[in-house]
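JOB MANIFEST
job_type = single_chain_structure
chain_count = 1
residues = 355
[input]
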Amino acid sequence: ALCVFTMYAIGMTSQITGAKDFAGQWKRTFGSRTAWIPVSIVMIVCTGNCLAYSCICADIFFRLMPSFGMAMPRNMCLIAFTLFPLLPLCLLKNLSALSKTSTFALIAVLYTAIVMVLRAMDGSYAAGGKYFNDVSPRLAPNVPSSHLFGLSMNSLTFLNYLAVAFLAHYNGCKYYRELENHTPMRLLACTATSMGITVFVYVVTMTAGFLTFGMNCDAVILVNYSRKDTFVNMARLGVGLSIVASFPLMFSGLREAAIALLKQISHNAADWDAVLRQDVLSMCLLTLITSLALVMSDTGVVVGLVGAICGSTIIYIVPCSLYAASIQTYLTTRNLATIVLLRCLTVLGTMLAVG
């Protein structure tokens, strides 16, 4: 609900200020001298998400390749799919060819959810099950008899995971301006519908995964399943390909934010319109992300860091700060309750980022 509200806040800020992006909104509320701040935040967010994507893909393909008779180390899988197809895709300037990948990704996720529910119900991974002996002791099923309401400080990590799960706000301004007949309330309705569906899918997959493997669930749940499980291998392939196809979309946001930031600090901003410069920048950024993914092999840590630092900032702090400032700057009638709520969400985002 909070993520939906902050998307609504982005729409309201766009309507009040008339600015079409975070940088423009920041200039009209806080001034042009610090307009680099939201651009830098978007750049960090996109970098973190690309890093998480790389780590997840490496884990998935590392488990998948043996089923094709091509066993490869995790780092080799990462380097291989970075060189092809990620590098050529990340050099594209027009990504319209990838516009249909969201439908494929949805189908892949729904198929994965169905397979996970099937495996939770058929006992294939329970003691004595068909695939029980194929799972390493570290990932073997360990389902507690009672775990409901077992909350602790570690539960904050789960909140960071959720921040990544609903992290769409870095593109909030774009979604608003490209939404047909856009209004803040229409953006609110569309966001609530899409995130509601997402909640349902997450609840189903988390429940199925926990009922199958319990306390030994890996951060990338498909890692838990046997490499001999054909249905799961198909799910791995589908999810892996959908992430590979989605990566250039996220990378495009990173490149655009980096170029916008470089133009702000460059003496000749037009230099960064050259295709060659943009291609060199793309290769440098992709090399940086891949290098980090080679070192940071624990996907859970990566997702937790992305959720804590990147997610909390772009979901709570930036939208709420801009909305509150736009109300105080442009509106003669100020809703005190709304401003208080926005300030509280800003504090919440700060606590989650620091914690």
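[summary]
The chain is about 70% helix and 0% strand.
The two ends are 21 Å apart (CA to CA).
exit_status = 0
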